[in-house]
């Protein structure tokens, strides 16, 4: 995308949240030969891409990468190519659900645990009654179950496929199955957003958001899914990112 800035080789969009929402709505509306892959990348993912060749390939092939973290915004400012604001997966999901409620879009949700998946789907159906639930499945499926899940997504052909299996696993999973999911219009990962929507995790208070400290709220209060690294270990990447993009010339 032309209106972007490169941070450690990752091309971050300079669009605001509202501009991004409208841009994605246009991608859903028009006919495409394949799916539109959006990546919400934070400093941790950006740093991980430096030593992960597969992740680099996935980022290069993505249709849009948005700045899901205040560290990205600060790094762009330090570079002299400012990004107006963060565009988080959670905020983007809520905006697209609002648009989907107006336009009757269909959504498929893949990821998190079964109880959280069910509760999030129920909450979404109640809050956005005109959104069509194309289907859902928890993220703890076996290799034997995977073909059936892919077949279900193929049959339902959702306008939006939401992946809640953690980053960068969600994007790597999509990379493996992209050709099989060509009937989907838009795909992106939302991290732990379904945990918040379901009520399992409380959203960060307004003051934390205003101070760009949502990451600290998650670090202190959000549970860690089985199989994922602890949040404290993951946040250890932040000082490295700050040094490489903000402090070091």
Characterization of the model:
The protein is an alpha/beta fold. It folds into two domains: 4-198, Rossmann fold (3-Layer(aba) Sandwich), CATH 3.40.50; 206-247, no CATH class. The protein is built from 13 helices and eight strands. The protein has helices at 17-29, 43-48, 53-61, 70-79, 89-103, 114-127, 146-156, 169-177, 193-198, 206-210, 214-221, 231-235, 237-247, and strands at residues 4-7, 10-13, 36-41, 64-67, 106-111, 132-137, 160-164, 186-189. The strands form two sheets. It has a six-stranded parallel β-sheet, with helices on both faces. A two-stranded antiparallel ribbon has the order 1-2. Helix 4 (70-79) runs parallel beside helix 13. The two termini are 26 Å apart. 39% of the residues are buried. The mean pLDDT is 89.
């Amino acid at each position: 995308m032309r209106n972007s800035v490169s941070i450690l080789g990752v091309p971050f969009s300079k669009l605001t949240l509202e501009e991004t929402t409208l841009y994605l709505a246009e991608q859903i509306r028009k006919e495409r030969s394949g799916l539109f892959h959006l990546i919400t990348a934070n400093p941790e993912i950006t740093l991980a891409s430096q030593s992960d060749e597969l992740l680099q390939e996935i980022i290069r092939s993505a249709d849009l990468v948005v700045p899901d973290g205040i560290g990205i915004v600060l790094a762009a400012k330090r570079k002299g190519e400012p990004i107006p604001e963060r565009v988080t997966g959670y905020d983007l999901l809520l905006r697209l659900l609002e648009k989907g409620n107006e336009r009757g879009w269909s959504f498929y949700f893949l990821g998190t645990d079964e109880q959280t998946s069910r509760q999030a789907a129920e909450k979404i159906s109640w809050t956005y009654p005109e959104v069509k639930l194309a289907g859902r499945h928890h993220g703890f499926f076996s290799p034997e179950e995977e073909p059936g899940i892919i077949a279900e997504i193929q049959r339902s052909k959702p306008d939006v496929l939401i992946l809640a299996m953690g980053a960068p696993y969600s994007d790597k999973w999509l990379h493996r199955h992209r050709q099989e999911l060509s009937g989907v219009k838009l795909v992106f990962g939302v991290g732990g957003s379904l945990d918040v929507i379901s009520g399992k995790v409380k959203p960060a208070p307004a003051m934390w958001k205003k101070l760009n400290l949502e990451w600290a709220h998650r670090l202190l209060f959000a549970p860690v899914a089985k199989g994922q690294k602890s949040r404290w270990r993951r946040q250890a990447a932040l000082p490295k990112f700050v040094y490489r993009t903000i402090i070091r010339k």
